[in-house]
Amino acid sequence: MQRVLSCFMSRDMKKADKIRKGDIRSATRLIRDIEDNVPGAKSTMKHLFPFTGKARVLGLTGAPGAGKSTLIDALISRYRAGEKTIGALLVDPTSPFTGGAILGDRIRLQRHAEDPDVFIRSLATRGALGGLSKAAGDAIHVLDAMGKDIVFVETVGTGQQEVEVMNHVHTVLVVLVPGMGDDVQALKAGILEIADIFVINKADRDGTGKLYTEISNMLDMVQAFPGGWRPPIVNVGSVFQPALFREHVEQLSQAIDGHYEHLVKNDLLGDRIRRQTLVELNEALRSCILAPILEKLVKEGEIERMVDKLLKKESDPYTCAEEIANKYLR
Amino acid sequence: MYFTKKVLDESALLRKKWEDEVRKAVAEWPDQKERWSTVSDLEIKRLYGPEDISDIDFARDIGYPGQFPFLRGNQVTGYRGRFWTFRMFAGMGTAADTNRRWHMLLEQGTTGLSTAFDYPTLMGYDSDNPRARGECGRCGVAIDTLEDFLQLVKDIPLDRITTSMTINPPASVLWALYCAAAELQGVPLTEIGGTIQNDMLKEFIAQKTFMCPPEPSVKLISDTVEFGARYVPRWNTISISGYHIREAGSTAVQELAFTLRDGVEYVEDVVRRKGLDVDSFASRLSFFFNSHIDFFEEICKMRAARRMWATIMRDRFKAKDPRSCWMRFHTQTAGCSLTAQQPYNNVVRTAIEALAAVLGGTQSLHTNSLDEVWCLPTENSVEIALRTQQIIAEETGVGSTIDPLAGSYFVEALTNEMEEKAWEYIEKIDAMGGMTAAIERGYPQMEIADAAFKFQKQLEAGDRVMVGVNKYLTGEEEKIPILEIDERVEQEQIARLNKVRRTRNGRAVKKSLEELRQACRKGDNVMPFCIEAVKNMATVQEVCNVYRDVYGEYADPAIF
Amino acid sequence: MAERKLRIMVAKPGLDGHDRGARILARHFRDSGFEVIYTGCHQTPEQIAASAIQEDVDVVGLSCLSGAHRYLFPKVVELLKEKGADDITVIGGGIIPEQDFQMLYDAGIKAIFTPGSTLEAIARWVRENVTQGS
């Protein structure tokens, strides 16, 4: 029966079907096709889209060396003990000079490498134009459609596009470390605004109390929290003190679960998902409308000609943009 | 001032004349390259003269052998009383195989033993652990239990021969085995002598043989230092090692700085944690350096190291006993300087490196064998390596006088420059809160990775030459005999281990491991419990698993 | 437009921690425009094979200096095959005596690089012999 049915399936449907059954090779290849902008990828995504929306998506962001991967490692163990299936997307920066990247985050997760219910995939930030956010958003859908109960997304919280990725998750953990120059003032405002939970990692170090107070004071100044959720601050001690660390991770996972319950109880999950869907639509519009036009303009040398005109003050950016819009978007 | 004003004035005049001549000569015959630097990329001048060392204060900076700052050596008699120890690193296959190699070395005139363990032993795994597959007996000897250890030291008089053991995370366990073996030979602990490497900081920095996190690792080391200071006075409980830092691609200055800063970290921990007086244990700290191919840089590094350590012990730790200020060190020629191509050239490299170590005043030396790029050395190649040392000692005459290069403009200037640059690193690490904190930040790892990458790029660009690798290539590869480790070693070893497990008193093992666990939890010194456990035939892995359980496991953070 | 990036994994199977070469190579691969997944020291063949599949790499580069390559390298190939991923190219490097070459080739290792191989030679081999996302 299955075989007969599969005769009627398109290649993309078959791919989507394999992914839904949990096939890792198909899933990881689809993620790669999305990253590489392979045309067929969109079509497979279309078939997967109806089966998404079940996974809980947790995002971790923070400076390099803040210990995000180590926290994910511990949280995976915690959720695996509850027999949840796991996906993890780890994002590392692409070198702007060579286009290459060293993706080293999974080192800290290698003890889960052989667990068939844990799928870990590294992504490079690649190029411009919200590409990362779109690829990560789609990759989350892939893991979701595979049936993963919990999906982790890790990014370095330094660039705009890394922050944008956090639009795709349900719970955002901002990971800070005392004494690493992570003064709250120095942090990008964008990150603080998206935080659902603050984690002070390596909280055995000097300066933990100071950092805690700073975040706390900052939160005190907020008039009203969106959805009434005041982000808790969770201290996590050194990973090298195993017993205490485990206890702290347990507290952290309770905070994570607490946030999710809050979203569900107050009917906010819908808002989150709506926000996320809006971002995705934006990205899809950009990818389907703006990107092809831009590509054409670059190829035909039109961009360069426009820049020349602007430099000579023969035109202005708005006029140029309107001309393009009239030409392509009538 | 090191020179009179008259000398400096004269020198300035003559130097100017010489510089004019150089300018003319170079205009006609340009130098082969613009910048000349050591293998560590430290820039070297065309000529050194009195003005380069005019700020030396003789009594403060140079002095005499056996006197502070020990620049010229610890021993007042130099090598005349006895040469450095010819200590050849050896170990392969089973304990019986290694014991045979040791007896051969002793017959040929080696004066100290040095043990290479296989990877499972180095990492604290038993030979039948799945992670040990394919590794057993390959890079050294496999040791699982006291039974293996007794076989290893069979007919070796432990009261007369000193043995060095290159072992780090399970150092306390292997030392416990040695103590237990001595007891069974009827030799009291006060009479055994030797060294355990037992330097975990450099593992985190460079060699990556790790088990527990940095903090408890240092605690275990302090346990051994304390136990040694109290009960095993002839034992060197740490060999603070720059060797592996250098092999990982560091510069000579980085090797010098990181090694000494590691030493500071250990001393601080023993003083703070154990409350021991620095003079009660400092003389049992030993060091281990690399001797690389850049001749003068190595000699200057070793001279600077002695002066710096003496200064650290006197000024930073207020040591009173001059012996606490002694930097006693073993040296090994640089494995990473050897080439797989044209392997016989390695004999020449090793000889030059060994000569540098002797001129640098080493107390103990291992010379690499020509085939060590490929495999564990064959008996024949080990013999050549040992003979290299014996030729230096007996034929060249370099040991006749102490520190013969002292006073050389170049040597003293380079010694000073390397010392200055090393102090800068040490200050930086101090500012980070010490070596453990610096390691957590990845600072030394990153510095070394950068140096290694730079060297490789220079090599590939042809800015650096390795004969037979990127210059003077021959079409054909020379074939050399390769020592093969029989793959039956693994099965034999596992069978022995299983037999021990079957025949030992399981209850006693369990009880002693439980007592060790309690000691770890309470922060007591683990050594007595460790000795008890191995006497009951607990395996290396079983003891290490207690450490792993209580202290946690460290995983490679891979810093680029 | 579609631009396939080459994905390569640099892995150290076994217990030796001599990662100087592996890390230098990882940097060079990055500078050659590849996406490099580095899994750190002390990996089992099982961890390496599983990771290679999850990461959809084109190439796995194994580095071993302990002499255990005779067991470890073929084991990685075998595990990839078991999981239907024998399209992933496996290459190896480290201290590997010539007499072991044939045995490793027979086991499915596609290329072997020994001390003295230049970084560029290795990157060139990868560029010339591996198709991205094939």
SSE blueprint:
The complex is a heterotrimer of chains A (330), B (560) and C (134).
Chain A: H1 2-7, H2 11-20, H3 24-35, H4 40-48, E1 56-62, H5 68-81, E2 86-92, E3 101-103, E4 118-124, H6 131-145, E5 150-156, H7 160-165, E6 171-176, H8 189-194, E7 197-201, H9 208-220, E8 233-236, H10 242-265, H11 269-299, H12 302-311, H13 317-328
Parallel strand pairs in A: 1-5, 1-6, 2-4, 2-5, 6-7, 7-8
Helix pairs in contact in A: 2-3, 2-4, 3-4, 3-6, 5-10, 6-11
Chain B: H1 5-28, H2 58-62, E1 85-90, H3 95-107, E2 112-115, H4 119-123, H5 146-152, E3 163-165, H6 171-185, E4 194-196, H7 201-207, H8 214-231, E5 235-236, E6 238-241, H9 243-247, H10 252-274, E7 285-291, H11 295-316, E8 328-333, H12 345-359, E9 364-366, H13 379-394, H14 409-432, H15 435-441, H16 443-460, H17 488-503, H18 506-522, H19 527-535, H20 540-551
Parallel strand pairs in B: 1-2, 1-9, 2-3, 3-4, 4-5, 6-7, 7-8, 8-9
Chain C: E1 7-11, H1 20-31, E2 35-38, H2 45-54, E3 59-64, H3 69-82, E4 89-94, H4 101-106, E5 111-113, H5 119-129
Parallel strand pairs in C: 1-2, 1-3, 3-4, 4-5
CATH homologous superfamily classification of the largest domain in chain A: P-loop containing nucleotide triphosphate hydrolases
The structural domain count of chain A equals 2
Q: What is the straight-line distance between the termini of chain B?
A: 45 Å
| Largest beta-sheet characterization of chain B | 9 strands, parallel
Report the uncertain regions of chain B. Answer: none
CATH architecture of the domain at 78-402 and 433-460 in chain B: Alpha-Beta Barrel
**C-alpha Rg of chain A, in Å?**
22 Å
CATH class term of the largest domain in chain A: Alpha Beta
Helix coverage percent of residues of chain B?
40-55%
N-end to C-end Cα span of chain A: 48 Å
Strand content bin of chain B: 5-15%
How many distinct beta strands of chain B? 9
Radius of gyration of chain B: 24 Å
- CATH topology annotation of the largest domain in chain A: Rossmann fold
Query: Structural class of the secondary structure composition of chain A?
Result: alpha/beta
Which strand order do you get reading across the main beta sheet of chain A? 4-2-5-1-6-7-8
Strand content of chain A: 5-15%
Shape descriptor of chain B reads globular
Task: Give the number of DSSP strands of chain A.
Answer: 8
| CATH C-level category of the domain at 78-402 and 433-460 in chain B | Alpha Beta
